[in-house]
Write a structure and sequence with these properties.
Elements (H helix, E strand, L loop, with lengths): L7 H11 L4 E17 L2 E21 L2 E10 L3 H16 L35 H14 L3 E17 L4 E16 L6 E8 L7 H14 L9 E7 L1 H13 L3 H5 L24 E4 L33 E5 L2 E2 L6 H7 L10 E4 L6 H6 L3 E15 L4 E14 L2 E6 L1 E6 L1 H7 L2 E2 L3 E3 L11 E3 L2 E12 L3
Parallel strand pairs: 7-12, 11-18
Antiparallel strand pairs: 1-2, 1-4, 2-3, 4-5, 5-6, 7-19, 8-9, 8-11, 9-10, 12-13, 13-14, 13-15, 15-19, 16-19, 17-18
Protein name: Peptidase
InterPro entries: Metalloprtase-TldD/E_C (IPR045569), TldD/PmbA_N (IPR035068), TldD/PmbA_sf (IPR036059)
Pfam families: PmbA_TldD_3rd
Length: 464
């Protein structure tokens, strides 16, 4: 039995058959990737990879409770499968009772394609994209700019089996395109990114044209000091901030008084209004174009996920509904502690309920303010307020009387996404976007641009 010839569902079944624990969960992740990279208007590298990771969760019942042990390994062969299962069982027996222990999930219908082979990507995913990219290189060269960036496509087929009879499977395509244009002297830089499932809906020529305009804006430099400015946050920046907010939305942490969603004096802020705008922040595994796993896949326990919840169905959930905090992320264990509903986190995030205005329309309606390109190096400063700090990057532009009149310097910012929602005065059209900061971890997002009247640019940054 080699990783290449044995089907993932067979690996899952054999691992379950080998188990001697009271409970067992097996997750096989079959991954394939294809990528292109370029610099200075020329392709530099391309490649295709394949891999498999097997995770075994063993649960052992005891007088004081149920313990769990988790072991993950890649490229598991026939000789290594039983030692992997035994290692998970040994880890469970050597651990104390698991705080998040729950009965393993039951009653979820089997995926009809569970026994099918894994989905795979290949360089063919770039069949239309690559020639269009080559044409963009030629246009950029003629226009006196240099293009840098990469395109990556990944397909992960996840097979999940449990000793309680679950047999589930999900195929997750994930594509990212990041394109950076620079002036030949490297003093001007502009960035654009896209998230895609199959590279059929991305147009490198359109992105290059957008970047050419931005490099043109940057020919005039206007130095500005730190301060609070009316600021237009594009969808990518809004996504980066609200993804971090969602990662911080644990129901248990809120009840324990440790987050921005904790109510002073006890309890949570569920039901409180976070913004006067009629915005809804939601997740839905079936969101068109942003589809994600419809069941929990937890390779470890911690924070807002539990290995005991593996296979639990994920429903469409409004986290903020029409401006009010509606739900916090909760495992089954967390729900029992907090009294809040079970609400597993999902693999996508959508903010809608704004106007139908494009970012260009919002620029045209601005008397004086700043237009950002993206955010970078975001870090948490204070969990009690969810104060974040980070940098602007690849272009901050001055808007005067409805037009972009030049590029200003970059800034360090200090802001809370919850505070921004509360102060935002306008939201534009929701569109699919690529979160630049979190693109290695979370790519399926749709956001509007936001207008914030007093975004806190706390200091000047010398970055390009």
């Amino acid at each position: 039995m080699s990783p290449r010839t044995t089907k993932p569902h067979e690996i899952v079944e054999r691992a379950l058959a080998l188990s001697r624990a009271d409970g067992c969960v097996v997750i096989a992740d079959e991954q394939s990737t294809a990528n292109l990279r370029w610099a200075g208007n020329a392709l530099t590298t391309n490649g295709v990879t394949r891999g498999r990771t097997l995770t075994v969760v063993a649960t052992v019942d005891g007088k004081e409770g149920t313990a769990s042990g988790v072991v993950s390994r890649s490229a598991v062969t026939a000789d290594e499968l039983e030692p992997l299962v035994r290692a998970a069982e040994a880890a469970a027996r050597g651990a104390g009772p698991a705080e998040d222990a729950q009965p393993l999930v039951t009653g979820v219908p089997e995926s009809p394609d569970f026994t099918d082979g894994p989905a795979e990507t290949s360089s063919a995913v770039f069949a239309d994209f690559a020639p269009a990219l080559g044409e963009s290189f030629a246009r950029a060269r003629a226009g006196g700019r240099e293009l840098y960036g990469f395109a990556n496509h990944e397909l992960v087929s996840t097979y999940l089996g449990t000793s309680t009879g679950l047999r589930l499977r999900h195929d997750q395509p994930n594509g990212t395109l990041e394109l950076n244009a620079k002036s030949p002297d490297r003093t001007r830089s502009a960035w654009a990114g896209r998230s895609t499932r199959d590279f059929k809906d991305v147009d490198p020529a359109a992105l290059d044209a957008e970047l050419a305009v931005r490099l043109g804006w940057a020919e005039r430099r206007v130095p500005l000091p730190a301060g609070r400015y009316e600021t237009l946050l594009p969808p990518t920046a809004v996504a980066d901030l609200l993804i971090y907010q969602q990662w911080s939305a644990s129901g248990r942490d809120a009840v324990e008084g440790r987050t921005v969603f904790s109510k002073p004096g006890g309890g949570t802020r569920v039901g409180e209004r976070l913004t006067e705008l009629p915005l809804t922040l939601r997740s839905d595994p079936n969101e068109p174009g942003l589809e994600s796993a419809p069941f929990v896949v937890a390779h470890s326990s911690g924070g807002d996920q539990s290995v005991f919840d593996n296979g639990l169905p994920i429903a469409a959930t409004d986290w903020v509904r029409a401006g009010e905090l509606a739900h916090l992320v909760n495992t089954r264990h967390g729900a029992g502690l907090t009294g809040l509903p079970v609400a597993p986190g999902a693999g996508n995030l959508v903010l809608d309920g704004g106007s139908d205005l494009s970012l260009e329309d919002m620029v045209a309606n601005t008397t004086r303010g700043l237009l950002l390109t993206c955010l970078w190096y975001i870090r948490e400063v204070d969990p009690a307020t969810l104060l974040l700090t980070g940098l602007t990057r690849d272009g901050v532009y001055l808007v005067e009387n409805g037009e972009v009149t030049g590029e200003v310097n970059n800034f360090r910012f200090n802001e809370s996404p919850v505070g921004l929602l509360g102060r935002a005065t306008e939201a534009g059209r929701t569109e699919k976007t690529l979160p630049r900061e979190w693109s290695d971890y979370f790519t399926r997002a749709a956001m509007p641009a936001l207008r914030v009247p007093d975004f806190n640019m706390s200091s000047v940054s010398q970055g390009v």
